[in-house]
Amino acid sequence: MNAVYDIAPNPSGNGWMVINTTTGDVARVGDREMSSLSIEDADDLADLLNHLERIKRARMH
């Protein structure tokens, strides 16, 4: 499975953001955009969201 979530520098120059590679949108958790993060937090969050996506897809099969 290809990763759905990845990280990218925030265009405003303020940290990093997690993006949905399918839609190009900034990832959201609840009502909060996942932007202006440290690179470590963005990377950890992308890993977590990709793990949850794999679980979701496995349950669908």
Give a description of the structure.
This protein is α+β, with helices and mostly antiparallel strands. It has one domain (5-60). 36% of the residues lie in helices and 23% in strands. It contains 1 helix and 4 strands. The strands form 2 sheets. The protein has a two-stranded antiparallel sheet with strand order 1-2. A two-stranded antiparallel sheet has the order 3-4. The chain is elongated, with a radius of gyration of 12 Å. The mean pLDDT is 95.
Task: Jot down its keywords.
61 residues, alpha+beta, 1 helix, 4 strands, 23% strand, elongated
Walk me through the topology.
Layout: E1 5-9, E2 16-20, E3 28-29, E4 32-33, H1 39-60
Antiparallel strand pairs: 1-2, 3-4
Outline:
36% of the residues lie in helices and 23% in strands. The chain is α+β, with helices and mostly antiparallel strands and 61 residues long. Strands 1-2 form a two-stranded antiparallel sheet. A two-stranded antiparallel sheet has the order 3-4.
